[in-house]
Protein 1
Amino acid sequence: MGKPLKQHLIDPEICIRCYTCENTCTLEAIEHDDENVVVDSSKCNFCMDCIPVCPTGSIDEWRIVAEPYSLGAQFGWDELPEQEEIAAEVDEAETGLEAIDEAMTALLAEAHKGAGGKARAPASASRPTVNMYTPGRPAEATVQGNYRLTDKAGDHDVRHIILNLGKLPFPVLEGQSVGVIPPGTRADGNSHLPRLYSVSSPRDGERPNFNNLSLTVKREKRGVCSNYVCDLKPGEKVKLTGPFGSTFLLPEDPQARLLMVCTGTGSAPFRAFTMRRQRSTGANQGGMTMFFGARSPENLPYFGPLGKLPPELLRTHMVFSRIPGAPKEYVQDRIMVERDAVAELLADPATHIYICGLRGMEEGVEMAFTNISEGIGTQWLALRDTMREEGRYHVETY
Ligand code: NAP
C-alpha cells in the first residue's frame, strides 16, 4: 500500500448540480454524468479555484485514502463515504499532510470570507429529500399558472409560476430549489443544463394538499431558461430535476426566531417560510423579521400579500432603491436604522439568520451586523461562526 493521499470530493447530497465548479476548473478535473459531479484525483492539483464559486459548500469535502476513489465509484454515490479508518493511522508528520492541511485551511479561510462558509441545516429542520430526479430521469410537471408580479409597464419582468406534479411524488421543503431543463440544445448539440430556482411555496403545495409548487423567476435579457419559463403557458409540460439543498431550511421549532434579508427574487424561499408558518403555527411562533430590498414597490415581488400579514407573524421592512426623488435605500441601511431590534435578535440563541439574493449585498449586510454586534459587545465573526455551527446562519447569494 502506498502513502495515504488526500482526495478532493464533492458531497452528492448537498451539490445542486449547477456545474459552476466544472466550468471554473481549468484542469478539467471536474466532470459530471446524469447523477453526480465528481473530481478526477489524477488531475486535481488542489489549486482551490473551485471552492469559493460553489454556492452550497458541497465542493469542500476531503478524505484521506489509501487508494483514491475512482470516477466510476463517485458517479455511483448517493452520499459521501465516511472517512476510512486509515485516517487515524496516518502519521501526519511522516506523510506531509499537516503542511497540506495548513495550506488548505488558509486557502479555505480566504475562500469562505463573506461567502457564508460551510452551512449546516437547522437542528430542528425536517430531513430533506434530494436528487430524486436527474437530467437523465427528470420529473414532468404541467404549468398551472404564470402570473406577472412586477409592474406591467416596465421591463423588470418577475413571474410567479405554478407547476403541477400530478401524481408524481416530488417532496420538497421550504428553502429547497429545483432545476428546470430548458428544451432544445446548446451550440455544441448537447442538451441544456438545468437552471436552479428556489421553490417559493411551502411543502404542502402552493394550494394546501395539492401536489403543486411555485417558482419566482425574473426574465433575464439573454437568459435561455428564464425566457423559457417566463413565457410558459398553462398546460405546457416542464422538465424538473431535484429537489436540491439540505441546509438552507426552515427550523421546525416554532419558537425559532427568523431574521430574513433578501433582494428581488431572493424573496422566493422566504415566501415559502412565511406560508409554512402561516399554515402550521399561525401567530403562535417565535416571530419573523424580514428586510426586503427592491427597486420600487411595483418591482417588489409579492408586495401586496406581504403587506397584509400581521406583525405577530412577520415584521416586514421593505426598502427601495429607485424611487424618483427619494434617496437610494438598501437592506443594510435599514438594518442599521433598526439596529436595536436587530441587536436583540442577534443576542438571542433562538435566532436564525437567512440572507438570499444578490451576492453584492452580502458585504453590506455583514458590515451592518458587525457594527450592531460591536454595539452589544459581541464580535460578529465569532457570533457568525457559532451560528453557522449551530445551523442558524444561512446564505444563498448569486
Ligand atoms: P434586483 O431587482 O436587481 O435588485 C433588488 C434590489 O437589490 C434593488 O433595489 C437593488 O438596487 C438592490 N441592490 C443592488 N446591489 C445591492 C447591494 N450591493 N446591496 C444591497 N442591495 C443591493 O434583484 P434581482 O434581479 O431580483 O436579483 C435577485 C438575486 O437573487 C439574483 O442574483 C438571483 O439569482 C438571486 N436568487 C434568486 C432566486 C430565485 O428563486 N429566483 C433564489 C435565490 C436567489 P439597485 O437599484 O442599485 O439595483
Protein 2
Amino acid sequence: MDTIIEKVDSHITGNEPNAALDAATEILKKGGLVAIPTETVYGLAGDALNPDAARKIYEAKGRPSDNPLIVHIANEEDLKKIAKDIPEAAYKLMDVFWPGPMTMIFNKTELVPSTTTGGLETVAVRMPSHHVAYELIRRSGIMLAAPSANTSGRPSPTDAAHVKEDLDGKIDMILDGGACHYGIESTIIDMTSDIPTILRPGYITRDMLEEVVGKVQVDPGLESTSLNIRPKAPGMKYTHYAPKGIMYIVEGNSANGIIRCINRMVKERQAAGCKVGVLATRRNASAYEADEVIVIGDREDELMISSNLYRALREFDARGVDYIYSESFEGDGLGDAIMNRLIKAAGHRVIQAPTI
Ligand code: TXA
Ligand code: MG
C-alpha cells in the first residue's frame, strides 16, 4: 500500500473546502486508516463505529487487541451516542478542559463495537483541540478511534516524520500538521468510579482536576511496582515508549553528583566498547563526556521537556546508542507525566547518584 502524505494548515477552521481533509474523509468512510496530528501526539485514526477499521488499527500498530482505543469526538451530542451514565462531574470537566488533552472513561452504549474497546464495556472519549483533528471529525461527521500512531512499543510520534518511520506502507494516509504541542499523551480519567480516578497522568494534572470537581484519586496500579496491583488502563501494563538502547534514569540531590555519576557509568560502558548517550538539561549538557548528548530543554520549562521527550528517544535510536543515561525531570505540574513516561521508557531502571 502507498501511504499518501498531505500537509494541512494547523490553524484550519471554518468551512472552506480542503482537499486533504476531503481525501481523508473518503478513506475513513471506506474503513481505511489516516494518521492525524493532535495536540498531544499523532493518532492513527479509523472510524470508531466500524469494527473492521479497529481491527486494521491493531494490525498496523502490532498492538494486542485487548488494549482499547480512545474515541475522538468534536461535539457533546456525539458523546451521548457512545457513552451512558455520564456523571455531573464529567460535564464540569468537559466545560473546562475540552477540547484538549483530557480523556474520560464511561460505560459504553451498544453503538460502540467491542473491537474498538478491546472487549471492555467502557469507552474512553476525548475531544482534541488540534484544529486538523477537530476539523476532520467535525467535517466528516465520523467519530475517530485513534491510538498513538507508533508501532507498538516504540515512542509515540510527535511529528509526521515519526509516523512515516513506523507506519509507511501500512496505512492509507498521513496528515502532516507539524509538531505536536504537548508531546505526551492525554490525561486519562475513569469517570465510572465514585471518585474520578486518574489512570494515566498528562498535561491536565490532579490539582487542575480537583479545582473543578473536588476529590480526584490516582490509580494505585500506576505507582505500584507490585505485580498484584495492575494498572486499570490496559495499555499502562505494557512496556511502552521504549527506545532501542537500554536506558537508566539518574536521580540525586545535586547537579554535580548526577553529572559525576553519569560520567563514571558512561566511561565504564565505553570501555566495554558501547556507544553511550546522555539525555540532559541545557545547563548541564556540556559537562557530559558521552558519545551522544541530547539536550531536552531547560529544567524550568516543563512543556519544552514534554514536547521534546519522544523525539529525543527516537533520536537516540537513530544514532544507534547502546545505553542512555537520563537526568530526572521531576516537577510540580507536567513533571509527574514526564517521569511516568520516562520511567517506563527506562523499564524502571532508576539509579541514585551518591551524594558528594
Ligand atoms: O493523547 C492521547 O490520548 C493520544 C492521542 C492520539 O489522542 N492517544 C493515545 O492512545 O494515547 P493510546 O491508544 O496510545 O493510549 C490509550 C490508553 C491505553 O493505555 C488504553 O489501555 C487506555 O487508554 N484505555 C482506552 N480505553 C480504555 C478503557 N475503556 N478503560 C481503561 N483504559 C482504557
Ligand atoms: Mg500509545
